[in-house]
Specification:
Layout: E1 14-18, E2 21-25, E3 45-47, H1 62-75, H2 88-99, E4 107-111, E5 120-131, E6 137-147, E7 151-153, H3 155-166, E8 169-170, H4 172-186, E9 191-200, H5 201-204, E10 215-221, H6 228-239
Parallel strand pairs: 5-8
Antiparallel strand pairs: 1-2, 3-4, 4-7, 5-6, 6-9, 9-10
This protein binds zinc ion (ZN).
Zinc ion binds near residues 131, 134, 136 and 202.
């Protein structure tokens, strides 16, 4: 196994070998979002998930949201004159504004000059988002892998991509698909696979109250999408930590 791009050994990430394949493992907490990343070298270029951004969406009106939150809570029978609830509409507004703050990451890519042609896998990237049906949180981990084509993505960017797609009301199925399609389209990855494992509070804390239930979703994309070998290897690697 040769040909790892030097970038793979940066930023505290490391590479191991499982089943004879190089696997870049990234189990650290996703890095905090920064407004912009500078390219690491002159050959790097940046792409952004343009068509999936909320750039054209109206900006949040936090004052209106706070008034609406107060009206909503009062309509549910809560007494906002109580000392302990007085600041709740404001806190609620800030909390949801933070959950929906989809700051666009600048995604630096690198030419795959060394012809690295094994799976790149970031395993167990933690994420949290909000289900679009109940506006209750769901959270878990994402395993994101791709088989590089002509471009490589900085490893930390995989976590940022997960964070970006999580920062809006979501369904787990759509988020899984968006991540896989993004890697296939923007990186021209030959193969991309995403597994999300998440616990939905709308399912564990209300409704059927199925505590401990994890929902697992898988999406594959790219020209080699149907390749059974890639799929089997990916699923083996993502399950290897259990
Ligand atoms: Zn829900």
């Amino acid at each position: 196994m040769t040909g790892l791009h030097p970038h793979y050994e940066q930023n505290g990430h490391f590479v191991t070998h499982i089943n004879g394949h190089a696997v870049s493992q990234m189990t650290a907490i996703a890095p905090a979002l920064r407004p912009r990343d500078l390219p690491v070298d002159g050959a790097a270029s940046s792409v952004g998930p343009a068509e999936q951004t909320d750039e054209d969406a109206p900006r949040a009106d936090l004052h209106a949201a706070q008034r609406a939150a107060a009206a909503f809570l009062q309509a549910l029978g809560l007494d906002l004159d109580k000392e302990e609830l007085r600041e709740t509409p404001a806190r609620m507004t800030r909390a949801y504004a933070e959950l929906f703050d989809a700051r666009r990451p600048t995604l630096t890519t690198f030419p795959n000059d060394a012809g690295y042609d094994e799976l790149v896998l970031a395993r167990a990237i933690p994420f949290r988002t909000v289900c679009e049906h109940h506006l209750l949180p769901f959270s878990g981990v994402a395993h994101v892998a791709y088989l590089p084509g002509e471009r490589l993505l900085g490893l930390s960017k995989l976590a940022r991509l997960v964070e970006f797609f999580a920062a809006r009301p979501q369904t787990q199925e759509r988020m899984t698909r968006q991540l896989a399609d993004y890697l296939a389209a923007k990186l021209s990855a030959r193969w991309a696979g995403v597994v999300l494992e998440a616990e939905h509070s709308c399912m564990t804390l209300r409704g059927v109250r199925a505590q401990g239930t994890k929902t697992v979703t898988t999406a594959l994309a790219g020209p080699l999408r149907a390749d059974p070998q890639q799929r089997a290897e990916f699923l083996t690697l993502t399950n290897a930590q259990d």
